[in-house]
Amino acid sequence: MRIVNGTCPFPRGKAVGGTTISNGLAYVRGHPIDFDRWSDMGNPGWSYEDVLPYFKKSEDFHRNNPLAPVDFNYHGTGGYLSVEYHLPPSRYLAAFLNANQELGYKLTDYNSPEQIGASPVQQNTKHGRRADGGSAFILPILNRTNLKVMTDSFVIKLHINEDTKKVAGVYFSYKGKIHIAKPRKEVIISAGAISSPQLLLLSGIGPKDHLNEMQIPVIQNLEVGSTLRDHSQYYGLTFASNISLPSQPLSNYIEEYLKGVGPFTISGPNDGIGFYQTSFEKTANYPDLELVIISPNATSTFFKDTFGWNDDTYDATWGGIDVSSSFSIYIINLHQLSVGSVKLKSNSPYDYPLIDANFLSDPNNRDIQVLYEGIQFVLKLTATDAFKTIGAKFQAKPLPACKEFEAFSKDYWYCSLRQLTFDVYHPVGTCPMGPDSNSGAVVDNKLKVYGITNLRVADSSVFPFTLSGHPNAPCVMIGEKVSDLIKEQYNRL
Ligand SMILES: Cc1cc2nc3c(=O)[nH]c(=O)nc-3n(C[C@H](O)[C@H](O)[C@H](O)COP(=O)(O)OP(=O)(O)OC[C@H]3O[C@@H](n4cnc5c(N)ncnc54)[C@H](O)[C@@H]3O)c2cc1C
């Protein structure tokens, strides 16, 4: 087996060309019920009991914050992927944790089966430095003779024999030329929830009508890209506080960073995290809502640019706020019913695909109701004594786009939810796993693409639904698992 850039079973990382915005990633696996559901959908080998050993195998957990709640039965040490807490804990975090306790939520290790409750964020950093898939798993083994990493290469399509349905090669561009990598046994695509479906579609694996429309010969008719699932996040709740963190010279922050502490070492900046069950989730102890406290609010202009907010919206939500003493609480719908899609714009590999998140589109409006319940909960949480001690005060001015509604009435919040609900960059499920390709599945429980002899997909695109966690930790688990599936197939386990 050869590994080509972007076709290796590891998650986003600098070494393989992924995006790098925050310093570390929040490490959130999901609830045991997620994986039992995954298995019960006809995917043997993916229950919580099956996958927990893989989560633990890759983990190198450091309890560097003695006050953080931890259940050691669910953590591993000695793996490649470092997990630790950001230091030092902030006063915002203390207020968040105390406020949760005031409302009856316990402090919990959310990566144990007791996910509901609040905690400091477990993050993928090592002594405060980003520990992503590339730096954790690839850099330490770069000198292995059976591994070749070619950065700056771009996979453009698979060459599949129409008769045998076997992948004969992977075409990629490198230094201005097209090359082909030929597999001895099989090919594994790990290009992520957007690019994996794009590559399959470009190679003739996808819905036949769409391929016909793109003038791509159909090799295998499968629902590639027909389902895009994500966590939607409401960004509109900003609060002032009496905490003042005056800016320091850059050199001070760098000095702190070198010691593994301080603002440059935080993921996000996600300070604290909480998981909750709304009235819409009927399975006992199964969270469907997440809150993240972001402090201080240094990310405001970043979001303006990222999401393309106009000046009116930006001014109403962030305008005039002292970023050094304010915080936000983001609300995440974990089990979104709305389903989007990834399609090709053209049959050129150099065109970006068309991504339709299709948020808040479910016919019964459950997704918006979950987020609305989240807003009500945050307003209650920030009215606790714990938040009063830091002078928490809701800041936003009514959005001009929602001026027809009485400010902060239910109708107003629904309008605001439709203005300020965006992606949290957790796309999954575009090549979903399932037992039957006639019901939309693209890969089977061994991650093999239906109808193709020697092709697997191993990344976030195979999730059958959004989990109660963030996708990176489960992607690492998938990487661990696919290694064993391969060894099993070739009697090396
Ligand atoms: C800003 C941001 C913040 C996030 N924060 C968190 C977080 O805190 N916690 C968390 O759990 N998740 C987080 N995520 C999500 C998480 O990063 C992804 O879910 C995860 O990385 C998905 O892993 P993957 O292996 O499916 O794909 P990716 O990590 O996207 O890996 C795909 C790789 O394939 C390469 N590639 C794609 N196409 C090609 C091609 N044609 N040729 C060659 N190479 C190609 C890409 O460059 C990339 O390196 C965040 C995402 C973003 C964007």
Automatic annotation (TrEMBL):
The entry sums up its family as follows: Belongs to the GMC oxidoreductase family.
Tell me which residues this entry annotates as catalytic.
H426, H470
This protein is called Glucose-methanol-choline oxidoreductase N-terminal domain-containing protein
Cofactor entry: FAD
Q: Does the keyword Glycosyltransferase apply?
A: no
Cited Gene3D superfamilies? FAD/NAD(P)-binding domain, Glucose Oxidase, domain 3
Molecular-function annotations in GO: flavin adenine dinucleotide binding; oxidoreductase activity, acting on CH-OH group of donors
Stored Pfam families? GMC_oxred_C, GMC_oxred_N
Q: Which keywords belong to this entry?
A: FAD, Flavoprotein
Q: Which residues form a coiled coil?
A: none
- Highest taxon of the lineage: Eukaryota
Q: Which organism is it from?
A: Rhamnusium bicolor
Q: Which residues bind FAD?
A: T19, V155
**Domain Glucose-methanol-choline oxidoreductase N-terminal residue range list:** 192-206
